[in-house]
UniProtKB/TrEMBL annotation:
Entry's EC annotation: 2.7.8.7
NCBIfam families reported in the protein's UniProt record: 4PPT_Npt (NF042923)
InterPro entries linked: 4-PPantetheinyl_Trfase_dom, 4-PPantetheinyl_Trfase_dom_sf, 4PPT_N, Enbac_synth_compD-like, P-Pant_transferase
Protein name per Swiss-Prot or TrEMBL: 4'-phosphopantetheinyl transferase Npt
Gene assigned in the entry: npt
Length: 223
């Protein structure tokens, strides 16, 4: 599924069924030694996907450390993103010479819990949600998913927090049927985007989204 919304040059791996014999990489075990079982499975599953993606890129399947605010630490010259939700873990990685950053997120295709929307959206975004024909799609959760992908593309390049109120996201819908849909989204960053990689400041991101098989997926590959 993730391959459908990522550009060429980005390697992706997904895990739906969790293998009973899947274990943490020995060099990662200390990071989850005290974690509850669900947290362990999400951590192990997503990093397992990252190593599969590394192999697709021709890189060795090394341990993936954890940096500031939980940011995954990929090998030098590789950028990427991890995500997980109930029944799904995934990774998307690429070489830094191809894209500056990658952000992916996965969410269950369902309504946001009551009261959450106001805290994760801007008035203009809520106006769009109120007027957009849903046709069975939970666009409020799609907005949240796109905000999460935006943050994951932003943070490795800036090492700074990005609040939900700091990004305005608009959507285009390419296709829509009952319980499925796809399209693009555009993120306008509302705060200065000075970066730490020597590249131009971040102003916008463009991404793609997909709703299928009970999941919402969003992806940004920023060049």
């Amino acid at each position: 599924m993730l391959d459908n919304i990522l550009p060429s040059g980005v390697a992706a791996a997904e895990l739906r069924a969790y293998p009973a014999d899947l274990k943490a990489h020995p060099a990662e075990e200390h990071l989850i030694a005290k974690a509850v079982e669900k947290r362990r499975r999400d951590f192990i599953g997503a990093r397992h996907c990252a190593r599969l993606a590394l192999e697709q890129l021709g890189e060795p399947p090394v341990a993936i450390g954890k940096g500031e605010r939980g940011m995954p630490l990929f090998p030098r010259g590789v950028v990427g993103s991890l995500t997980h939700c109930d029944g799904y873990r995934a990774a998307a990685l690429t070489h830094a010479l191809r894209f500056r950053s990658v952000g992916i997120d996965a969410e269950p295709h369902g309504e946001l819990p009551e009261g959450v929307l106001d805290s994760v959206s801007l008035p203009a975004e809520r106006d769009w949600l109120a007027s957009a024909p849903a046709d069975g799609l939970h666009l409020d959760r799609l907005l949240f998913c796109a905000k999460e992908a935006t943050y994951k593309a932003w943070f490795p390049l800036t090492q700074r927090w990005l609040g939900f109120e700091d990004a305005h996201i608009t959507f285009e819908i390419d296709s829509r049927t009952a319980d499925s849909g796809s399209g693009t989204f555009h993120t306008q960053l509302l705060v200065p985007g000075m970066t730490n990689d020597g590249g131009t400041p971040l102003i916008t991101f463009d991404g793609r989204w997909l709703i299928a098989d009970g999941l919402i997926l969003t992806a940004i590959a920023h060049g």
